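Work Package 3 (structural annotation) set out to generate three-dimensional models for the target panel prioritized at the project kickoff. During this period the team completed the workflow that converts sequence records into discrete structure tokens, so that structures can be stored uniformly alongside our sequence database. As a representative example, we reproduce one entry of 232 residues exactly as it appears in the project archive.
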Amino acid sequence: MSVDDINIQLAKVAAAIAEPARATMLCALMDGRARTSTELAMLAEISPSTASVHLGKLREQSLVQVLAQGKHRYYQLSGGQVAAALESLMAIAGRMRPDFTPSTPERLRQARTCYDHMAGEYAVAIHDYLLSNNYLIAQQDPRAYELSADGEQLFASIGIELAAMKKGRRRFACACVDWSERRPHLGGAVGAGLLKHFVQHAWVEADLDSRALRLTTKGRRQFAKHFGLFST
């Protein structure tokens, strides 16, 4: 790419950020959580149809990406480079990051089922722990994971068999956008295997009348031991 081409592309990216509604939506995504176009429209105080047009322009410049999950479509920043650029611009503008305030009831927010795997604060924390410690390895598809050798050893120490999961037709491990936290928890066969183990070994107990999961005393100890939760 020539210098002129780079300058032209830079101008396009700058123009995409410069519009006030688009800047508001980008800043709202700086907390790392995904949001729907409707939520972003409300934050930017524009109509949903106008928000869709703006989000289309942001996607054209690779500033945001879409995560499709069931009937829902969530938007998040395209990556760390975009976040770093926005952080610098926000510092120049003297603007603070907006806080994300979930409205989910506390019991459901902490831990619940998401089909056959665990969701909520604890599930997101487990996902982040596995990823930051290189037990999970991100693939070319940003939502797909493999387990590292250390990750396989960790699962073996917990007592989770991986052989059948690898042979199955189901996706092995993947990121699933958390409904309350708007950040990924672990789905796929590995996520399902974790929840099955948690329930069978009484680390969590399921509510009879809701999706909520209650962490037991044993579970709290095991989550601290294996996933670094509650250690501070």
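The first helix runs from residue 3 to 18.
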